[in-house]
Amino acid sequence: MTTTTPPQHPSADDPRILLDDQIGAFEAVPPYPPRTEREAEFYSLGDGEMFLNMGPQHPSTHGVLRVVLKIDGERVVDLDPVLGYLHRGVEKLCETSDFHHIISQLDPLEYISSLFMEWAPVMAFEQLLDVQVPRRAEYIRVLTGELNRVASHALFQGWMALDLGGLTPILYSFIERDEIVEMLAAITGQRMLFNYFRIGGVNGDLNHEFMSRLGDWMSRASVQNQANTDLLNDNEIFVRRMRGIGRLDRETALRMGTTGPNIRAAGVPFDIRRAHPYSVYPELEFDIPTRGHDGGGDSLDRYLLRIDEVKQSLRIIDQCLHNMPDGPVMAGLPRLLRPRPGRAWAAVEAPRGLFGTYVISDGTDQPFRMKIHDPSFVNLQLVGLLMKGNLIADTMAVMASLDPVMGGIDK
Amino acid sequence: MDRSLRRRLEARFGDRLTGPVRQRHDQTEIRIRPADVPEVMRELHDDPTLGFEILADLAGVDTGTHMQVVFHLWSATTPDWLRVVADGMPRDDPRIPTLTGLWPGAEWMERETYDMFGIIFEGNRDLRRIYMPPDYTSFPLRKDFYLADDAARSPGGGVRHMEQTHAPTQATPSVVRRTVKA
């Protein structure tokens, strides 16, 4: 009897296999002549400079972002972010699905703050249809939205430390985030991609499991938040690597179209919840924290500002629970929606900034054009300004402090 | 709706507006020619009585007959969003001056609009594709972009599903059906 040897599968570790140089390697320099002035300027090397390709699978690029760094020693001279690795053509998908389906198409945009991705489009559709949303539904939207904001900022806190090389804080962040995610799963039915808001209301009323989980969490949320914060804020290495790095001044922030915590950390109190109030925010009491009043905010300011925001969100959640009116959670609407031809724009304050939607209706059940404005996309442009002159390791701190999510950037 | 904004815009821009100022819900809309964009935007930004200092969005639109670029602006002087529609660019060669001189942050938004619609922003120094690969040749969000399994091309216009059309490739292109006055 002869024994058969198992077939040998080629492995990349096998020294007998010669890999083509191109396999698995990204060419930092594009293999075609430069097409724009900026590209020509970037892809020409000065004395002592070299290119370093970072990503798209680099763990600290928050998704699949590729950045070509031009470095001189350990200093970053210039950089060229390359996007599109997660591009799914969501806007085109929205043009070919009806108004109800669109809500589920949008959830995976910024997958850690999905409720806000549903909120702005739903508001725009309600404008097109002239629907009045019941007050209870508005309160539930604010309540769940702010919970989602806390979860998103909690994850940011952990990511920030992870990008600086600290592994512990993200484990604590996940404890807090998981509580909220389970809570939202009890009311929406999903842990991440909630698909909860509906045109004219929300999908379901508050239920017992949600309320008991929320009450349990609220009783210790601020204590837990403080503990997580102390873990990092009292860490000298963490603070020294963040302070003074990536300084963004007020004027630049405005001109660069920055929104959200990044512009507030530069001293501009621009928050859509107060700048252009929507939903029931005018009835609620909360402050708009700002930082960086001495001519700009650095990475540490952007980090601390998000912690301030979590405290304000807890205030809002508390008020929502006390003021929650009774009544229906959905407006009466037909299954097939055909708004009159027209245009609508709605924007909400997502955890990363202004999330807006511009919808054109042509009278059919699908939008003629749907533009999604994602805050991370605009905020990511700042890396080109803020990373220059820093060490490669510090560029990670800068990028993490801007808190981009590639799902939204690439659409 | 902010009636005083409407009066201020009409007084300020007069014949540079190509249509009446429209207002609905919390939005005020003006229409201008593409060539006037830098000048009008600079006045909207610099004039302290208008003070539109935040560019909230820049969107391209293919109406089926021509191209538009739509800007949304925010100002502390009015409770309304301002929508500026630069209208009437030909589909075969849409061109508009860039806004990067005023808002450098518009650079990527213009790159995205170029990538999706082929609208050339004259003066943008980095007008490359941003999402699609560099060797890509078409513009996906144009209305004549071909989608092989597009339910919207079925005779039901998306109401009935595509199995109604046995050969979706022979269905009417959506650009014929869906030409609207946007």
Keywords:
heterodimer; A: 411 residues; alpha+beta; Cytochrome-c3 Hydrogenase, chain B; 3-stranded antiparallel beta sheet; 12% strand; globular; B: 182 residues; alpha/beta; Beta Polymerase, domain 2; 2 domains; 5-stranded mixed beta sheet; two-stranded parallel sheet; 4 helices
Task: Report on this structure.
The complex is a heterodimer of chains A (411) and B (182). Chain A has 411 residues and is an alpha+beta fold. Chain A has a single domain, classed as Orthogonal Bundle (Cytochrome-c3 Hydrogenase, chain B), CATH 1.10.645.10. Helix content of chain A is 45%, strand content 12%. Chain A contains 16 helices and eight strands. A three-stranded antiparallel beta sheet of chain A has the order 1-2-3, with no helix packed on it. Chain A is globular, with a radius of gyration of 23 Å. The termini of chain A are far apart. With 182 residues, chain B is an alpha/beta fold. Chain B folds into two domains: 3-122, Beta Polymerase, domain 2; 146-182, no CATH class. Chain B has four helices and seven strands; from the N terminus they run H-E-E-H-E-E-E-E-H-E-H. In chain B, strands 1-2-5-4-3 form a five-stranded mixed beta sheet. Chain B has a two-stranded parallel sheet with strand order 6-7. In chain B, strand 3 and strand 4 (66-74) form a beta hairpin. Chain B is globular. Mean pLDDT of chain B is 80; it is low at 154-179. Chains A and B meet through helix 1, helix 2, strand 6, strand 7 and strand 8 of A and strand 3, strand 4 and helix 3 of B.
Secondary structure class of chain B reads: alpha/beta
Structural class of chain A: alpha+beta
Strand order of the largest sheet of chain B: 1-2-5-4-3
* Parts with pLDDT < 50 across at least 5 consecutive residues of chain A: none
Strand fraction of chain B equals 15-25%
Largest interface: A-B, 53 and 56 residues
Count of domain modules of chain B: 2
Oligomer: heterodimer
